[in-house]
Amino acid sequence: MMKKIIILIILVCFSCKPQTDIDLNPNFVFILADDLGYGELGIFGQKMIETPNIDQLAKEGMILTDHYTGSPVCAPARAVLLTGLHSGNNPIRGNDEWKERGDVWSFQAMLDNPELEGQRPMPDSIVTVAKFLQSKGYKTGMVGKWGLGAPNTNSIPNNKGFDFFYGYNCQRQAHTLYPSHLWRNKERHILDNKIVTKGRLQKGLDPYNSETYNPYNQNDYAPTLMHNEALRFLERNKENNFFLYYASPIPHLPLQAPKKWVNYYHEKFGEEEPYTGGSGYYPNQYPKATYAAMISYLDQQVGEIIKKLKEIDEYDNTFIVFTSDNGPTHLDHVDINFFNSAGPFVNSKNTVKGNVNEGGIRVPTIVTWPKKIKPGSYSDHPSTFYDYFATVSDIIDEELPYSIDGVSYYPTLIDEKQDKHDYLYWEFPAYGGQQAIRINKWKGIKKNLFEGPSKLQLYNLNDDPKELNDIALDYPEIVTKMENILENILENADSQQTMSNSSFNELERKKVEDELRKLGFL
Q1: Element (H, E) at 231
Q2: How many CB atoms sit inside 10 A of residue 111's CB?
Q3: What is the 3-state secondary structure (H, E, C) of 146-205?
Q4: Fewest beta carbons within 10 Å, which of 36, 266, 386, 406?
Q5: Which residues contact 467 (CB under 8 A, 6 or more apart)?
Q6: Sorting pLDDT into bands at 50, 70 and 90, what band is 493?
């Protein structure tokens, strides 16, 4: 009898043991839309496109009204997000397609030779937020578009902290949503799709006949395949802490969407002029309806992610961010004026994607964590992609592997005193060469830097969010302050040109790598 009592006491003690730190920490889900404009969600003022699930997510959490991407185009924005380094310190600063390898834009050539896939890699010394969480016991997964290192490099998702990856390694491949293949971890998954040449409709084909567009809508729709893998990842890891990076390829062009949603918006919008092709993308019979359909399909997927989190009883303790990698496209077969895609900012080729204007870098951002964040709340604290890594480390109370540029916005989310950046910074070595800086309400922009010295344009975002009135002459002291910061950042970058594609000089890099090995990152 005494033996049974002792065994019972032991069992009770084990069952009542305190949870470990990892058990008490939240899960992390980061949902990244592609080229979604600030004004393309209902909760952000969209009138034409329906996004009930994302709108509901906002009502259950906090809207960050002044949140920024790290860069106005795909690859560098993602690099800033994952590394916590702004675009002046980041090794990935533009969409470098590594063209010296050969015919990197040919789908057929890439299918025949995977050496032509992917973008230039991040250096080995870089630690991503995924690698950081993985080292703390999290199960890490990514679905969607990578764009930060080709298949033959060390800079693929599985080597940068993700236990599981399914999606596009190469962002050029994502110029079709019916690709020849995707990647499952380090292996190709061949799909039931044919390679279709981009360009204009062939002569003699009727642009008003729906059968004309059959070749551009095939069997295996990549966003659906990747979404299903995301749901399976959540189901597999319901007993673990997890980090899911959901990098959707939509609504980035091409215009390809599930027929159900296209039909819905065709009926809603009525007849429209077809897009007959060009600009490196496929023709489409109903361009407005298809663009809206892509966003509503993404909204449907977000709803299904939330439903799955609730099914596995993890929604209340999951820190979810929904945002976009940059502003909306300026290409004319997406009618950004019809949709008012930039919202309160300017809809124009020179102010949206590819530009450091507000319409190119301020992105719609929603953060939810029912256990911690007050529902229906807002914050105008200026924050950015390179803050995410710092925020995650703050939430789980773990030291960062090395100094980054981010400042945790966790205090804002739980209504505590928030540290602020001295400034937010962007640089972009394309579209003529650009820089931008924000200090509180003041925004400074320089453009056409490749043509020579450029005067800084100054805007008061509180009074002029559209950046229409350059007031640099009225505030010379602020201009001088911004100019000095920008010059120091560029001088720093110039002094580190021998960094072997790293954000550290050689001596610092070796010290960091030694420390990372001790911590188990390398």
Answers
A1: helix 222-236
A2: 17
A3: CCCCCCCCCCCHHHCCCCEEEEECCCCHHHCCCCCEEEECCEEEECCCCCCCCCCCCCCC
A4: 266
A5: 345, 346, 351, 357, 358, 443, 445, 457, 459, 461
A6: low
Q: How far is CA 513 from the centre of its chain?
A: 27
∠ CA 500-426-511, rounded to 5°? 35
Sign of CA dihedral 468, 470, 471, 475: positive
The Cα 401–Cα 136 span in angstroms is 12
CA torsion sign for 165, 167, 169, 171 is negative
**pLDDT band at residue 24 under the 50/70/90 scheme:** confident
pLDDT at 72 over 60: yes
Q: Give the residue-averaged pLDDT of 250-273.
A: 98
CB atoms closer than 10 angstroms to residue 231 = 18
In 259-387 the beta strands, taken as DSSP E runs, fall at 318-324, 366-368, 377-379, 383-384
pLDDT digits (tens, 9 = 90+) for 327-348: 999 998 999 999 999 999 999 9
361 token code pair: 């870098």
Tell how strand 318-324 and strand 366-368 pair up.
antiparallel
pLDDT greater than 90 at residue 501: no
Token pair listed for 260: 């159900």
The tokens for 154 are: 């060390």
pLDDT digits (tens, 9 = 90+) for 198-223: 889 988 999 999 999 999 999 999 99
Q: pLDDT per residue over 413-424, tens digit each?
A: 999 999 999 999
Cα 111 to Cα 194: distance, rounded to the nearest angstrom: 11
Residue keyed to tokens 């502003």: 327
